[in-house]
Amino acid sequence: MAFTATMLSWSIIEYGGRMEGRVHDARAAVRWATDYLLKAATATPGTLYVGVGDADADHRCWERPEDMDTPRTVYSVSASAPGSDVAGETAAALAAASVVFKAADPAYSRRLVAAARDVMAFAWKHQGKYSDHVGGGVSNYYPSYSGYTDELLWGSAWLLWATKNTSYLNDLISLGANDGVDMFSWDNKLAGARVLLSRRSLLNGDKRLDSFTRQAEDFICRVLPKSTSPSSTTPYTPGGLMHRSGNANLQYVTSASFLLTTYAKYMAAAKKRTLSCQNLPVTYKALRALAKRQVDYVLGANPLGMSYMVGYGARYPRRIHHRASSMPSVAAHPARIGCQEGFDGYLYAPGDNPNVLAGAVVGGPDENDAFADDRADYARSEPTTYTSAPLVGCLAYFAGSYKNK
To answer: Cα separation of 12 and 269, whole Å?
Structure first.
C-alpha cells in the first residue's frame, strides 16, 4: 500500500499537469492511502502499524469483504521488532505525498512531511527486516527479499526532495547501495531511487549524485531489448513484452515503463540526447518508444488482442482472481457466504465474474504471450494496486503526448 501511494504520488508530481481534470481524483486516491499511513505512523509513539489481519487465515477463505470474520489482528514494528524496509517505504509515501499536496493543501503537506521525518529516523535508528519480526503470515506472502538498504535509500531520496535538507543526501551517499538491478518493484526500490536522484544530478547539476545517474542508466541498459543494449538481462516475449517473472509479471512492466518514461523526461529537460549501453548510444526517444510499446501491449496491442486492464477495450480478463469481483454483491445475494463456501461456489466456478473491477491490471500473459483467463491462476489473473500505480503516470504522459494524434 505504501509503495502504491509513493508511485501514485510520483505520477502526479511528474505528470499531474497532463491529467487535466482527473488530477483531483488522483490526489483523492493518494489521500485515502496517506490518511491511513498517517494514522499508522502517529497513533502510538515509537510504533508503526504495518498490517491488519492474519494473512494465512485470510487466504484460507474465499469470501466477500462484508462477510469476513477472520482475525483482525494488528501487526507493528518498533525498537524491539524493527522493520526498516516497511518504515522506509512508509516514509517515502508520506514524503512524496507531501510534495503532491504542497500547493493544494499546505497544512496537510506539513503533517505528512513531519510524520515522514519521524518514520525515516526510526528506520535508520532501528534497522532490520520487517518480515523477520512481524507475524501473521507476512513472511509467507510479502517477505522483504531485497533487505532494507533499498528502502533506506528510497525514503531518504524522497525526503531530500520534500525537505531540501542535505542531511538526507549525506545519509543516502553513506549507504553504498551499489548492486546492479534489472527490476523495480514493491520490494526492490534501488532502480526507482536512482532515477529519482538522477533528477537532481541532471537538472540541478549536483555532481554528488552523478553515481546514481550512472546506476540509473545501468538499470535502463539492463531492461532494454538485447537488440538495443548488449548488457540487457531482460527477457521479452515473442510479442514484445518484458517478461521478468511468471508471477504478476506486469508489475515489473509498468514500473520499468514508468522509470523509462521519467528518465527520458529528465534527459530531454537536461538536453542530454543519449546514454550509452556498452558504447551503443540510446536516445531518450528510444526509451519513450519502448515504454509506449509496453503500455500499448498492456492495453491490447498484443498477439491475443487482449487488454490486461479490466473493463478497457473489447476483450479483457473476465475471470480475475479477486474475491469481491468474483462473488455476487450483497445487494444481489443478501445471505452470508461462508469462508469455505466461496471456493467451490465462486473461485473454481465457471463463468465470468459478476462484478467488473474497472481499471484493475492483472498479472498478465506468460512468456509466450498466452493467457488463459483462469480465476484460479493467481500468478496471471490477480490484480494489484502496485501494478496499477506506476501505469497511471505512463498513461498520463502518453495521453498528454498523443491526444491530438
So the answer is: 18
User: Average pLDDT in the 240-257 region?
Assistant: 97
What is the spatial distance between Cα 130 and Cα 84, in angstroms, rounded to a whole number? 7
For the record, the C-alpha cell of 258 comes out as 514508468
**Paired strand residues for 309:** 361
At 119-153, the pLDDT tens digits run 999 999 999 999 999 988 888 888 999 999 999 99
Beta bridge partners of 361: 309
Q: For residue 403, what are the contacts with CB-CB under 8 A and spacing of at least 6?
A: none
pLDDT confidence of 404, banded at 50, 70, 90? low
Q: Mean of the pLDDT values across residues 178-202?
A: 96
**Mean pLDDT over the full length of the chain:** 96
Contact 116, 30 (CB under 8 A): no
Q: Nearest 10 degrees: CA dihedral of 339, 342, 347, 352?
A: -140
SS3 sequence of 99-163: HHCCCCCHHHHHHHHHHHHHHHHHHHHCCCCHHHCCCCCHHHHCCCCCCCHHHHHHHHHHHHHHH
The contacts of residue 92 (CB under 8 Å, 6+ apart) are 2, 6, 116, 151, 154, 155, 157, 158, 189
For residue range 41-78, list pLDDT tens digits in order.
999 999 999 999 999 999 999 999 999 999 999 999 99
Position 13, amino acid = I
Dihedral sign from CA coordinates of 186, 191, 195, 201: positive
Rounded to the nearest angstrom, the gap between the alpha carbon of residue 295 and the centroid of all alpha carbons in its chain is 15
- Give the long-range contacts of residues 197-204, CB within 8 A, separation 24 or more: 197/157, 197/160, 197/172, 198/263, 198/266, 199/266, 200/160, 200/161, 202/266, 202/267, 202/269, 202/270, 202/272, 203/266, 203/269, 203/270
- Is residue 200 over pLDDT 80? yes
Q: Using alpha carbons, list the distances in angstroms from residue 65 to 34, 135, 181, 231.
A: 22, 22, 37, 46
User: What cell numbers appear for 62 in the block?
Assistant: 474465499
From first CA to last CA, the distance across the chain in angstroms is 35
**Grid coordinates of 97:** 505525498
Q: CA-CA distance, 43 to 204, in Å (whole number)?
A: 38
